[in-house]
Amino acid sequence: MQTLIIIINILCLIYSGWFIERLLTKERKNSLITSGILLLVLALLATLPLYALGYTSILITTILMYIILTVSWVLFSGLTGYMSLATAAFFGIGIYASALFLPTTGALLPILVVVLIGGLASSIIALGVGALTLRLRGIYFAIFTFGLVVFIMELLNWWEHTVSHRRGRYVMLVDNDYIFYTMLGIFVLVMLTFFFIRRSKFGLAMRSIGENEEAAAHTGINVTMVKVITFAISAFFMGAAGAIYATKITYVDPYVAFSVLFSFLPVLMAIFGGMGRIYGPVMGAAIFTYLQETLQTKFSEIYMLSFGVLLVAAILYMPDGLTGLIQKVWRRISGGKRVHT
Amino acid sequence: MPESIVTVLDITIGGLLLGGIYALIAMGLSLQYGVARVLNIAHGEFIMIGAFSTFTLYTVVGINPLVCLVIIGPVIFVIGFLLQRTVFTRLRVTAPNPGAYEASSLLAAFGLLFIVQNLALIGWGADYRQYSYLNSGVNIGGAIFSANKLVILGFSIAIGLAFYMFLARTRMGKGIRAAAQDPSTASLMGVNINRVLAICFGFGAAMAGMAGVLYSMRIPLNTSMGLQYTVIAIIVIVLGGLGSIPGAFIGGLILGIIGEVVTYFDPSLSLAAYYFIFMLLLLVRPKGIFGK
Q1: A148 Cβ partners below 8 Å, 6+ apart?
Q2: ipTM score of the complex?
Q3: What is the third-level CATH fold of B3-284?
Q4: Any A CB within 8 A of B67 CB
Q5: Which of these, A11, A149, A180, B79, has the minimum number of CB atoms within 10 Å of its CB?
């Protein structure tokens, strides 16, 4: 029964991605029916804690978190083609915002304000880092952002060791339903932001940067500004997700908060799902997280091993991800009549 | 001699001894990135495999760690050769442009990291391992260093030089240099590009493996030690200029000395200092010190 609830909710999440994709493309027929389904889907998601067990809603919260990280990664890297490995840095900054303002002794600020602080702190740092580094092309940008994560981690580690003399910090317990609703709220915001950016002139500018940056600059786009602003927007959601995630894990130290895994997982999930459509990353993150959580509890030893195998296999055999695979199958079934890219 | 001069000497020689290993690791990665265009995040895992194999061969079978060099080096070469031949060649052929290939091979290497590391974890467990070999002290101008550190530096330089001669003097070395400059033109000129790239990747992996063999004499081993050295290798090749073999060698020695200097003041800051220099360098001179 709980498995069924999980699967239905994952389908709901994917549906909302599909709905946004549909709004962006020109085919808008049956919009009354699809909008009706969307309302139903949102209602199902919003009432989850009422009909699901605690474990189920925790799992859906984790899935939401990875969707937020993946979609906000795609928002910047997928469109502009700059591979950022800084996700863990922004996520970790959010986590430490909670560690500072929500100690076990009592909240210094309301939780939502701390989430906002986590997001804003991340996007301010993204503005600075972006302004400095976004002129680095290709692999240099990836290496730099990867270095940034470990740099912040080492520095924080040194600070905690020599200045504040503690290993880790405890974060206050927050009600699971509260965490779920906050995550859901951030998810809705991310999807809306993605929608509005993709539809705007700004989104068009980003896509032209992704296709050919020099040509984009020649048509009068301020490429640096577009890149830096998008980088900051995507960092905001990563930081916000980190801040609320901290209340879920309750103990943080630099190694937990700035684990490079959080940089690579969103990339993997985006590739696994396929980046051509918005529901691709959503699908990738949801299915991957679900598999991860179930595998981790049942076969913890080979879990990381299978993670590596899956990553290599996905890159080798599914370059367009799950959505690419589904489209290929769909095209074959429908006899190639509805081919569009 | 006065105390301060001994300290300076101590730090410099210590830095060179550390830098020799960094240089060897970085030369391997430089070859993989400079020619084969794979930023191999799993590079450090070959170091770990080399180190653990040496541990097992020495403590269980009783084979001298220096003899392990000629056993483990070729074995890891074959593994690297096959990896390039299967996984990375397929990625290279199917990628729409070189940029996409660099991104996808980086991610594939990340997957490889997980595979190798967890296989090692299943095989060797999560405990720290250490053995003692050539541990007696040698006095250099008042500062005392263990003999194995000197042996490591000697072998690092010898392997680095041998490799440089191979690149500079042999026909295959010429093919490799041609492939590094322009793969498609090189293949038009009769260079078997897939084979050359596979050999490069194999050599890169073998150098990491041999670095692991040497390094296992002086540090405690752990199956999760790899990533740290990958990161150091990346810093060194950026320092020396991406793809430059002499740059990687000198960059390694420089980073070793920087590491010892920072360690002298505060050991827990050395990794942070590496990153700081690295990021500064990327911002000011992304081509590296020796880059063209």
Answers
A1: A86, A89, A129, B279
A2: 0.80
A3: ABC transporter involved in vitamin B12 uptake, BtuC (1.10.3470)
A4: no
A5: A11
